[in-house]
């Protein structure tokens, strides 16, 4: 395979990268190594030296259809020939209209109003603004606080950081600059265990005592992602919905990582058969092609805000809101998903992950193994040396990016059984090597 860009430019590119590019969650003095990717197709990433890696991360959980997908490519090519971008203020366009139509049809029925955002973090910011403005419009101005569960992750912007785990999250450096929020213990009843009523007690107490000041409960439904890759019981989510209704508090569901089938349901809220007042989606929305997210809400929230002071405008309006190119690809990504047998694919991935990963629980080096939908997690007893682990995985021909004590994969849905076994075998090899 000819890789002209890599062959001609790679040595200088790597030097420029190390000197000037600041990669996520790494130092510029002693940065984690980077691996030069020059192409991607199907479930494989191609390095500049020609090696191909099976991608177990779906590019941070987004590329559910794999890479270089013909239907998504065609949508991007067609749209870019018409217009790549136009401001959304005072203008609408077919891709945005089509995307809103798709989202309203596939999300829970009460969610009928769509705000198209730039990224997952921004969709959380928008959701928080919606919640606060809603209560302002209802003249209940004391309701400005957010209640959430520990172990969560909602993004890297400031309002989103304020509801991430305050102790074990990635944002402890900013604790003195973030708006204080209310936190309760994370649910301990796992997805498959019998429900324990005591799990919801602290959240119920907080709402009973402080609902007059709480605007919304914010949580990741069923799957806590980057905060710990934990799967909790669906009854917890049902109880939260009931408590929010009882105490007149909004419920914000962060479906950025879980949306579009990752947990085995189209949206994780479906495990509990509930609908939030506000839902955030992102990541897989465009099949991983480009950044885009959306915040959906109910008629009640949208119309109440719209009757409020200041002309009823929701106070957010990013420059690239409703980007036509991203919207067109998102429509194609949704159509590709809904036109496929994604449920069977995710179920097959789940079954294979259970078969090949659950036996690792017996290893001394492993604290726990968890599987739900197309998510497989091996929690080690000790923190993982990311640089050395990643080198081992690349040498094994796979791309896995661990963090903390967590070794996990969230592969594209199009992965075949042999490719998935390559990923799980690499995880097993790593876990066994730690024992040695």
TrEMBL record:
<keyword id="KW-0949">S-adenosyl-L-methionine</keyword>
<keyword id="KW-0963">Cytoplasm</keyword>
<keyword id="KW-0032">Aminotransferase</keyword>
<keyword id="KW-0093">Biotin biosynthesis</keyword>
<keyword id="KW-0808">Transferase</keyword>
<dbReference type="GO" id="GO:0030170">
    <property type="term" value="F:pyridoxal phosphate binding"/>
</dbReference>
<comment type="pathway">
    <text>Cofactor biosynthesis; biotin biosynthesis; 7,8-diaminononanoate from 8-amino-7-oxononanoate (SAM route): step 1/1.</text>
</comment>
<comment type="similarity">
    <text>Belongs to the class-III pyridoxal-phosphate-dependent aminotransferase family. BioA subfamily.</text>
</comment>
<feature type="site" description="Participates in the substrate recognition with KAPA and in a stacking interaction with the adenine ring of SAM">
    <location>
        <position position="25"/>
    </location>
</feature>
<feature type="binding site">
    <location>
        <position position="60"/>
    </location>
    <ligand>
        <name>substrate</name>
    </ligand>
</feature>
<dbReference type="InterPro" id="IPR049704">
    <property type="entry name" value="Aminotrans_3_PPA_site"/>
</dbReference>
<feature type="binding site">
    <location>
        <begin position="318"/>
        <end position="319"/>
    </location>
    <ligand>
        <name>pyridoxal 5'-phosphate</name>
    </ligand>
</feature>
<feature type="binding site">
    <location>
        <position position="153"/>
    </location>
    <ligand>
        <name>substrate</name>
    </ligand>
</feature>
<dbReference type="InterPro" id="IPR015424">
    <property type="entry name" value="PyrdxlP-dep_Trfase"/>
</dbReference>
<feature type="modified residue" description="N6-(pyridoxal phosphate)lysine">
    <location>
        <position position="283"/>
    </location>
</feature>
<feature type="binding site">
    <location>
        <position position="254"/>
    </location>
    <ligand>
        <name>pyridoxal 5'-phosphate</name>
    </ligand>
</feature>
<feature type="binding site">
    <location>
        <position position="401"/>
    </location>
    <ligand>
        <name>substrate</name>
    </ligand>
</feature>
<feature type="binding site">
    <location>
        <position position="283"/>
    </location>
    <ligand>
        <name>substrate</name>
    </ligand>
</feature>
<dbReference type="InterPro" id="IPR015421">
    <property type="entry name" value="PyrdxlP-dep_Trfase_major"/>
</dbReference>
<dbReference type="InterPro" id="IPR015422">
    <property type="entry name" value="PyrdxlP-dep_Trfase_small"/>
</dbReference>
<dbReference type="InterPro" id="IPR005815">
    <property type="entry name" value="BioA"/>
</dbReference>
<comment type="subunit">
    <text>Homodimer.</text>
</comment>
<feature type="binding site">
    <location>
        <position position="317"/>
    </location>
    <ligand>
        <name>substrate</name>
    </ligand>
</feature>
<keyword id="KW-0663">Pyridoxal phosphate</keyword>
<dbReference type="GO" id="GO:0004015">
    <property type="term" value="F:adenosylmethionine-8-amino-7-oxononanoate transaminase activity"/>
</dbReference>
<dbReference type="GO" id="GO:0009102">
    <property type="term" value="P:biotin biosynthetic process"/>
</dbReference>
<dbReference type="InterPro" id="IPR005814">
    <property type="entry name" value="Aminotrans_3"/>
</dbReference>
<dbReference type="GO" id="GO:0005737">
    <property type="term" value="C:cytoplasm"/>
</dbReference>
<feature type="binding site">
    <location>
        <begin position="120"/>
        <end position="121"/>
    </location>
    <ligand>
        <name>pyridoxal 5'-phosphate</name>
    </ligand>
</feature>
<comment type="function">
    <text>Catalyzes the transfer of the alpha-amino group from S-adenosyl-L-methionine (SAM) to 7-keto-8-aminopelargonic acid (KAPA) to form 7,8-diaminopelargonic acid (DAPA). It is the only aminotransferase known to utilize SAM as an amino donor.</text>
</comment>
<protein>
    <recommendedName>
        <fullName>Adenosylmethionine-8-amino-7-oxononanoate aminotransferase</fullName>
        <ecNumber>2.6.1.62</ecNumber>
    </recommendedName>
</protein>
<dbReference type="Pfam" id="PF00202">
    <property type="entry name" value="Aminotran_3"/>
</dbReference>
């Amino acid at each position: 395979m000819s890789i002209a860009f890599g062959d001609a430019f790679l040595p200088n590119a790597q030097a420029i990268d190390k000197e000037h590019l600041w990669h996520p969650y790494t130092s510029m003095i002693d940065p984690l190594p980077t691996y030069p990717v020059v192409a991607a197709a199907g479930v494989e990433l191609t390095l500049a030296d020609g090696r191909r890696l099976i991608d177990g991360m779906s590019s941070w959980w987004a590329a559910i259809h794999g890479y270089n997908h013909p239907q998504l490519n065609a949508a991007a090519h067609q749209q870019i020939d018409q217009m790549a971008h136009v401001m959304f203020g005072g203008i609408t366009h077919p891709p945005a209209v089509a995307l809103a139509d798709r989202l309203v049809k596939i999300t829970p029925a009460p969610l009928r109003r769509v705000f198209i955002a730039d990224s997952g973090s921004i969709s959380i910011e928008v959701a928080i603004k919606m919640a606060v403005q809603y209560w302002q419009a209802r003249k209940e101005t004391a309701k400005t606080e957010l209640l959430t569960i520990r172990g969560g992750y909602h993004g890297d912007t400031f309002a989103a950081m304020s509801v991430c785990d305050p102790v074990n999250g990635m944002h402890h450096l900013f604790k003195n600059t973030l708006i204080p929020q209310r936190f309760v213990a994370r649910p301990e009843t796992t997805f498959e265990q019998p429900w324990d009523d005591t799990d919801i007690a602290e959240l119920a107490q907080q709402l009973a005592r402080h609902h007059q000041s709480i605007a919304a409960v914010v949580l990741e439904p069923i799957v806590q992602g980057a905060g710990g890759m934990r799967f909790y019981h669906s009854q917890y989510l049902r109880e939260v919905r009931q408590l929010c209704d009882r105490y007149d508090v909004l419920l914000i569901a962060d479906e950025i990582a879980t949306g579009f089938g990752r947990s085995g349901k189209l949206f994780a809220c479906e495990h509990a058969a509930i609908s939030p007042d506000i839902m955030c989606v992102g990541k897989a929305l465009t099949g991983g092609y480009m950044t885009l997210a959306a915040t959906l809400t109910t008629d009640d929230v949208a119309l109440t805000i719209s009757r409020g002071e200041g002309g009823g405008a929701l106070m957010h309006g990013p420059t690239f809101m409703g980007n036509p190119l991203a919207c067109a690809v998102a429509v194609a990504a949704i159509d590709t998903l809904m036109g496929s047998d994604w449920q069977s694919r995710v179920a097959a991935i789940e079954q294979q992950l259970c078969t090949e990963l659950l036996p690792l629980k017996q290893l001394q080096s492993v604290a726990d193994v968890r599987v739900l939908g197309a998510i497989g997690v091996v929690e080690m007893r000790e923190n993982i040396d990311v640089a050395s682990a990643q080198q081992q995985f690349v040498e094994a021909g796979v791309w896995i990016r661990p963090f903390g004590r967590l070794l996990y994969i969230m592969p594209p849905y199009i992965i075949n059984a042999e490719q998935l076994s390559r990923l799980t075998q690499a995880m097993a090899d790593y876990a066994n090597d730690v024992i040695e």
